[in-house]
């Protein structure tokens, strides 16, 4: 009988009730537990617990019963919608606070300066954008009539440490003025605060003393994110600032130092950074110890939000604008400027240059280098990595044109070829696009952390990041190694070279980043570098950056109905019209993508006016994050990833691309869908080839046009090599392809 009882107990355990994945994560974080601690207690891997919290897998007996027991006990300590201490301050066993009803979203609320009972946030119907409850002290006030109330959504995703009561009103606020002249601060989650400040200086003071805005640091030794205020046109008028900039001010990127608002700030002992009072102004006082006093302003009507990435965000009502930017802030970070600037700032936020040392003999801690970071000071690049005009090249003649043997050129693909006769007989041209291609190229990539070392006649080491002068002209794409002992014969004339952005075959020695040279070895060919600039101090600096942006992208796409585990047909259906399901979240997706590309591009920022002359240093060179070698390595790996998939596809199907532009490839096809030429078998893709899906590195459908269209536009512009990948999305060709 006992065996029967054991069997019954086991059966019950196998179906132990578990809360939803997001709640599992909330309960763990509420008790201050790490993934490693939970994994150790349950005797499973860290990745296993992470999978349970992400909803990718479900626990099985005997771990399931133990996991359910843990979550049940935590749920008793931390009921849903009740505030909990954040990160390091969480006290296990603290009694839960009873839930209290909060004001209706139609009723704006304002912060009180005196202590108040914490009222938990109202439960949102949009659970996809709701984190654990965030408390705030409030009193109800009369409704505002200027703008509609905010939608009940709060962004998911949290910095290190989870909810922080110092920043309980969120990372940012949109400041607007209603028809009666009352200044309002629209925060995430529908919260609206009354703002008493009568000047910009007073607004900054209020933000830091009463606003409870900001974002907890993303890394242990890092700094908290400064609060962001977005000023509407009505707010600009109210505070004496111009609604738009003059042509001269736009060119200068700021209003003049003589402006009355800047004088007001100066009288109140506030300072501006070197970029002055522009679209992304930073107003601060020197830090006192570890406490920062800094507020950032974003002014959409001064073109702070580039329409290429943010679309019409600047014209949204304040509540919607707060929701959109708040979602981006929670999932990526609080914007610090353009998406490119934010992409670069995210790298530093995840790998701060310094950390506190262990206590010395007197018990005092000191600032020291943070391992894995780029440090506090910039390092010189190698001469071959320096762009034209760099001080390292000051001795070159003014109009000297550097050859491939003098300069490293790692750029994305821009290649096309004429269609073959067989391809002309197919009716369709189908474009496929790699999702987050440059993010995927950064994932797992070893890059240099410090200065380069010059080496003569080195032995190539694929694990050593750097730049290599080597002749790859002997690599023949008509015969390549596709696995350890397997070679394949291809039509090399129908393939782009993997070693150049234009796809032409190389001639003689040239400089390449490590991933490019490693791919030549992978294809089965010997390489003998002449010299190299290598970085012995190296690491996977971009991994956490990739993870943060990947998670932001996937979470937002999931909110738009595109999940990560869809079958190919389901994925194509889900992608059809996904932007219309929530246009604001679709803008967040675009901004995340731009953060990836812009952040990588910013690693080699060029001079931006300021009276610069060739041979002189420019401002960006003073940053530790000015690293053209890291940019080159990411682009190299991204291009190689694309070429590897193209080769796998050609070996398996005999099909070759007719055009490749960065992360988009175009193929002639018998049908209009990617499934008409991608080699799926029983729903499974070709290993190592193109696979449909939303994850970074997988592909989506970019567009389909007819072969007649392709041949027609090439004839119209008298351009037989017109890159059709540039226009495959909607078929509109406005002018001859210049490759720019």
In short:
The chain is of the alpha+beta class and 740 residues long.
Question: Topology, please?
Answer:
Elements: H1 2-13, H2 21-30, H3 35-42, H4 46-54, H5 63-77, E1 109-110, E2 139-140, E3 172-177, E4 183-186, E5 192-195, H6 200-209, E6 228-231, H7 233-238, H8 247-252, H9 260-267, E7 271-272, E8 282-288, E9 291-298, H10 307-310, H11 318-331, H12 339-350, E10 354-356, E11 367-369, E12 414-416, H13 421-424, E13 428-434, H14 437-442, E14 447-448, E15 453-456, E16 466-471, E17 479-483, E18 486-489, E19 509-513, H15 514-522, E20 531-534, E21 538-539, H16 543-559, H17 568-575, H18 578-581, H19 583-602, H20 628-653, E22 659-661, E23 664-669, E24 699-706, H21 707-716
How is this structure best described in words?
The chain has 21 helices and 24 strands. The chain is α+β, with helices and mostly antiparallel strands. It has a seven-stranded mixed sheet with strand order 5-4-3-6-9-8-7, with helices on both faces. The chain has a five-stranded antiparallel sheet with strand order 12-22-23-13-24. Helix 12 crosses helix 19. The termini are far apart.
């Amino acid at each position: 009988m006992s065996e029967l009882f054991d069997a019954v107990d086991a059966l019950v355990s196998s179906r132990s009730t578990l809360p939803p994945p997001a709640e599992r994560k909330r309960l763990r974080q509420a008790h201050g537990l790490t993934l490693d601690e939970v994994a150790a207690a349950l005797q499973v891997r860290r990745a296993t617990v992470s999978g349970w919290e992400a909803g990718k897998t479900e626990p099985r007996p005997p771990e399931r019963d133990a996991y359910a027991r843990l979550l049940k006990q935590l749920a008793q300590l931390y009921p849903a919608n009740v505030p909990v201490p954040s990160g390091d301050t969480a006290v296990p066993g603290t009694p839960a606070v009873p839930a209290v009803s909060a004001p209706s979203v139609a009723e704006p609320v304002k912060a009180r300066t005196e202590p108040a009972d914490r009222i938990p946030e109202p439960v949102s119907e949009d659970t996809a954008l709701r984190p654990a409850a965030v408390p705030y002290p409030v009193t109800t006030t009369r409704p505002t009539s200027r703008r509609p109330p905010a939608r009940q959504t709060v962004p998911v995703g949290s910095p290190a440490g989870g909810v922080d009561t110092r920043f309980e009103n969120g990372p940012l606020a949109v400041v607007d003025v209603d028809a009666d002249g009352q200044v309002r601060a629209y925060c995430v989650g529908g919260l609206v605060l009354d703002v008493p400040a009568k000047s910009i200086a007073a607004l900054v003071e209020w933000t830091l003393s009463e606003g409870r805005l900001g974002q907890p640091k993303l890394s242990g030794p890092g700094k908290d994110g400064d609060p962001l205020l977005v000023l509407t046109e009505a707010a600009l008028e109210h505070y004496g600032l111009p609604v738009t900039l003059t042509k001269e001010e736009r060119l200068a990127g700021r209003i003049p130092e003589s402006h009355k608002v800047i004088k007001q700030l100066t009288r109140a002992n506030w300072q501006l950074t070197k970029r002055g009072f522009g679209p992304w102004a930073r107003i601060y006082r020197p830090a006192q110890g570890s406490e920062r006093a800094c507020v950032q302003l974003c002014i959409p009507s001064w073109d702070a939000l580039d329409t290429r990435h943010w679309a019409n965000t600047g014209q949204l009502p304040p509540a919607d604008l707060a929701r959109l930017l708040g979602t981006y802030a929670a999932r990526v970070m609080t914007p610090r400027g353009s998406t490119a600037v934010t992409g670069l700032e995210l790298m530093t936020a995840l790998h701060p240059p310094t950390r506190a040392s262990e206590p010395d003999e007197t018990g005092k801690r000191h600032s020291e280098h943070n391992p894995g970071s780029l440090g506090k000071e910039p390092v010189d690049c190698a001469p071959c990595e320096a762009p034209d005009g760099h001080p390292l090249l000051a001795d070159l003649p003014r109009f000297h044109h550097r050859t491939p043997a003098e300069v490293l050129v790692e750029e994305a693909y821009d290649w096309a070829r004429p269609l073959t006769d067989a391809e002309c007989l197919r009716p369709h041209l189908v474009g496929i696009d790699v999702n987050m291609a440059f993010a995927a190229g950064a994932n797992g990539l070893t890059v240099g952390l410090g200065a380069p070392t010059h080496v003569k006649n080195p032995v190539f080491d694929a694990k050593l990041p750097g730049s290599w002068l080597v002749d790859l002209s002997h690599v023949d794409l008509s015969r390549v190694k596709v696995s350890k002992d397997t070679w394949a014969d291809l039509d090399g004339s129908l393939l782009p070279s993997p070693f150049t952005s234009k796809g032409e075959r190389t001639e003689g020695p040239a400089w390449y980043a490590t991933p490019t040279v490693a791919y030549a070895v992978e294809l089965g060919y010997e390489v003998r570098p002449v010299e190299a600039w290598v970085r012995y101090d190296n690491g996977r600096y971009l991994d956490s950056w990739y993870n943060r942006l990947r998670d932001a992208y996937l979470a937002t796409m999931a909110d738009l109905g595109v999940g990560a585990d869809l079958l190919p047909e389901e994925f194509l259906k889900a992608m059809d019209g996904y932007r219309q399901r929530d246009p604001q979240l679709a803008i967040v997706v675009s901004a995340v993508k731009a953060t990836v590309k812009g952040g990588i591009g910013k690693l080699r920022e060029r001079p931006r006016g300021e009276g610069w002359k060739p041979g002189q240093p420019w401002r960006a060179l003073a940053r530790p994050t000015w690293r053209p070698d890291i940019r080159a390595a990411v682009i190299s790996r991204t291009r190689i990833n694309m070429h590897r998939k193209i080769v796998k596809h050609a070996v398996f199907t005999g099909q070759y691309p007719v055009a490749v532009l960065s992360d988009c490839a175009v193929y002639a096809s018998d049908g209009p869908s990617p499934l008409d030429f991608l080699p799926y078998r029983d729903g499974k893709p070709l290993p190592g080839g193109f696979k449909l899906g939303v994850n970074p590195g997988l592909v989506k459908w970019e567009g389909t046009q007819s072969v007649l269209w392709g041949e027609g536009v090439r004839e119209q512009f008298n351009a037989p090599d017109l890159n059709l990948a540039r226009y495959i999305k909607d078929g509109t060709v406005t002018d001859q392809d210049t490759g720019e």
